Amino acid sequence: MNIVIGGASGAMPPLLGWTAITGQVGPEALVLFLIVFIWTPPHFWALACYRCADYAKSGLPMLPVTHGIRFTCLHSLLYVVMLTAATVLPYTLGMSGPWYLLGALVLDVIFLVYSVTLWRDYSDKLARLTFRYSIIYLTLLFAALLADHFLR
């Protein structure tokens, strides 16, 4: 639960940046916040899965330690499904165009494949790859949003 609650602090930069530039908290800022907020659990849970023994030794109650790796992977998958829905919102709200939507959906499908595979056939190696992909995912997602702005 600490990752879910802590995700709000990690999601603040786009909200604060949007507000600083526009002078208001609009739906666009909240969508950017939502995307990062929902992305945070599957990102950190992948790391926590392949470092589960380290967390257990240190006594930190990470989800894989308290509820098991399979449970964690399932919840990670559910968050990636929610993330897929959230990443369509910039297009739906008119913040972006078809280039962003195409990029977001491609990135989402790849993240979903990683997450389903991780849940079905867990390995530390796959968890590491999923963690690394999650970093690439968020970087490319926001790059697609920026590129779409200049391509429209």
TrEMBL record:
Keywords: Cell membrane, Membrane, Transferase, Transmembrane, Transmembrane helix. One of its GO terms (biological process) is heme biosynthetic process. This is Protoheme IX farnesyltransferase. One of its GO terms (cellular component) is plasma membrane. The keyword Cell membrane applies. It is a multi-pass membrane protein. It catalyses: heme b + (2E,6E)-farnesyl diphosphate + H2O = Fe(II)-heme o + diphosphate. Pathway: Porphyrin-containing compound metabolism; heme O biosynthesis; heme O from protoheme: step 1/1. One of its GO terms (molecular function) is protoheme IX farnesyltransferase activity. The keyword Ribosomal protein does not apply. It is an enzyme of class 2 (transferase). Its EC number is 2.5.1.141. The chain crosses the membrane at residues 29-50, 71-93, 99-119, 131-151. It holds the Pfam family UbiA. InterPro entries: Protohaem_IX_farnesylTrfase, UbiA_prenyltransferase. It is found in: Cell membrane. Its main location: membrane.
